[in-house]
Write a structure and sequence with these properties.
The protein is an alpha/beta fold and about 230 residues long. It has nine helices and eight strands. The structure holds cytidine-5'-monophosphate.
Length: about 230
């Protein structure tokens, strides 16, 4: 029997450094990368553009099943396209993050997006970034990592990222938005944000990106016997 394509599932709350770690792992192993949060963000953006209420379950499910979303990879850069239009930047606002977490709380919407995510499992391997990669979508992943950090340090990182992109934002507002989004993600009934029982938990609060990368690589090499 063929061996299943290996998966490294990386989950955790917003602003914890998952995106940076996953990109670095994808470059290191030369594996595919799934940014599952981008799918929920594009769904939310598309709903807002079409004036679909974020609570309208049946319309959201239809939208999710037919979402004209593509990821275009050019070297290390990934562009997110909705209806062939580049929305890479538009989906990165906190407003869309909040809207994404509202649509992501609806179980039928999550179910409608499940296969689309699983289709990313392609040889030689997949780095999967999200909230429920290890617990639901790829529960058979041989490697599961859960990153965590204090809300304060995550808000600081997020603020830096947003400022880097010329957004004028206030720390208190970012902290509040992150805290609200976390609460919704952790307390929802379906696929709540929590470590899979067999995940390695890394608290990144006082770690550098390099430290997190090194710890992850060590763990992955042990688990995959590389
Ligand atoms: O990771 P990112 O901040 O882009 O995710 C946006 C939102 O999408 C999260 O706050 C969460 O509610 C939702 N999400 C999810 N499951 C995933 C990835 C993201 O529910 N696997």
């Amino acid at each position: 029997m063929n061996k299943p394509v290996p998966i490294i599932a990386v989950d955790g709350p917003s602003g914890v450094g998952k995106g940076t770690l996953c990109q670095a792992l994808a470059n290191h192993f030369k594996w595919h990368l799934l940014d599952s949060g981008a799918i929920y963000r594009v769904l939310a953006l598309s709903a807002i553009k079409q004036a679909i209420a974020l609570e309208d379950e049946s319309q959201l499910v239809q939208l999710a099943l037919n979402l004209p979303l593509t990821f275009n990879t050019d070297g290390c850069e990934v562009k997110v396209l909705l209806n062939h239009i580049d929305v890479t930047k538009d989906i990165r606002t906190e407003q869309i993050g909040g809207a994404a977490s509202k649509v992501a709380a609806i179980n039928t919407v999550r179910a409608a997006l499940l296969q689309r995510q699983r289709d990313f499992r392609q040889a030689p391997g997949l780095i999967a970034d999200g909230r429920d990669m290890g617990s639901v979508v790829f529960s058979d992943a041989p490697v599961k990592i859960f990153l965590d950090a204090s809300a304060h340090s995550r808000a600081e990182r997020r603020m830096k990222q947003l400022q880097d992109k010329q957004n004028h934002v206030k720390f208190a507002q970012i902290l509040q938005e992150i805290t609200e989004r976390d609460l919704r993600d952790r307390n929802r009934t379906f696929a709540p944000l929590k470590p899979a029982i067999d995940a390695l938990i890394i608290d990144t609060t006082s770690l550098s990106i390099q430290d997190v990368f090194n710890q992850s690589i060590k763990y992955i090499n042990e688990k995959l016997a590389l």
